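Progress note, project year one: complex with nicotinamide-adenine-dinucleotide.
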Amino acid sequence: MLDQAAIDALRATPVAPAHNLIDGNPCGASNGQTMDVISPIDGSVLTTMPRSTAADAERAIDAARRAFDDGRWSDMAPAARKKIMFKWAELIEQNAASLAVLGVRNNGTEISMALKAEPLGAAQTIRYYAEALDKVYGEIAPTDGNILGMIHKAPAGVVGAIIPWNFPLMIGAWKLGPALAAGCTVVVKPPETASLTLIRIAELALEAGLPAGVLNVVTGEGAVVGAAIAESMHVDVLTFTGSGATGRRLMEASARSNMKRVYLELGGKSPNIVFADAPDLRKAAKVSAAGIFRNSGQVCIAGTRLLVERSIQDEFTAELVKAADAMKVGDPLDLGSVAGAVNSARQLEQNLAFVAEARAAGRPVHGGAQLLTETGGFYMAPAIVSDVLPTDRLFREEVFGPVLAITPFDTDEEALALANATEFGLASAVWTSNLSRAHHMIAKLQAGVVHVNTYGGADGTVPLGGVKQSGNGHDKSLHAMDKFFDLKTAWIAL
Ligand code: NAD
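Model obtained:
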């Protein structure tokens, strides 16, 4: 669908200055300020976007509030709402090529992954929730015969959606799809380093017939725009994907303001456990390498801690090195690149610091060098660090970059203890031919997702969410809609 010539034509297109979308109107920041949008491909200024103020966020919240309170969306016939969401998904698909290339110029993800995960993934998600919107409804309770107990699922109101930069459309759609299907209105805060495509799909939503004010987008700094949304007395639900530090701030802001519900999808330090009886070690190594190194490791569920049975440590590490070395890191708009650019200079610096620290501590390190400096962009080779100890920072802290930590184990109990020795609990994996061992691991691993002999199932029909400090509440699947409903009980005397 997208060949190299088409990509090259799209990448040559100038990008117009971006704007907010408030109450259906494109607008700049009220103080006229903008911020540069830097392309990680070559470090150049791609365009500008509004550096919005707290007052701009409040204007967007007021618009969403009015749109919710007058029922222009929640009271619309479900069939009509569904039609608009279907049309929206269709428009996103029709614009998939330009959205994918724009997104890559903005955030650096390799185009082969971005096309599938971003516009096409978002369209699929929007369509899934459009299909669901007239199939998820209330209940009648089995009460005494003289009284009727009805349980309504009422749309929760105004939703604030704060989105990260690694997959802004895919993750954005995980929030927008169920929130809009539930009948809520939304204010989106896109990430500083990947705002452009979210603005574009909000415009497409208007084109599809979504009433003005139902979906608003405000760009700018998290600490200003995001914080204003979190502190607002008029936002009912906050849905967030990003770092734990920001998640904590959002909970505090909720407590200080109107105690809005706060749903968090946070980071991970996901264990990928390889037993000697894995069905196919070469395949396990290849899939594991993709599970940590695609999108330059900027994947929340990335299997960043590889726990390997000691008897196969050397053999398996060699396979991993082979798989990593075969991955082409380079221009993310080259269809041949398996990993593109790191999202920002700051993120690259942080990744390289982890590698340097491991090397200084005497851990064997393969790869991990900065690449392609002559381009002005932000690139690094996958890093594989062996003999990582549970006390190492690399074992405990999320890098959010292409840096794999390998730690050997001897027994199932040790593997489990190492796997669970983290404050995070997002994803995990087990590679084994032993069915009992796999089931035992599924039961005992403290994680929202357990893979067995695979890594990274992308299907939208299952929930994605973490336990422990990886978050609360789930994106994806019908369960995601629960976050955007209030349960309202009605008693009717008969
Ligand atoms: P971040 O927390 O810095 O930013 C995420 C979003 O929050 C951005 O839109 C940002 O503008 C906003 N923000 C920042 N400070 C804020 C504040 N004080 N108040 C309100 N909003 C604020 O995280 P990031 O660096 O953009 O994303 C990387 C992190 O996200 C990683 O830790 C990663 O694991 C996590 N992540 C998790 C998932 C998941 O599904 N669990 C998915 C992707 C990324």
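The chain has a mean pLDDT of 97.
The first helix runs from residue 4 to 11.
No further modelling is planned for this target in the current period.
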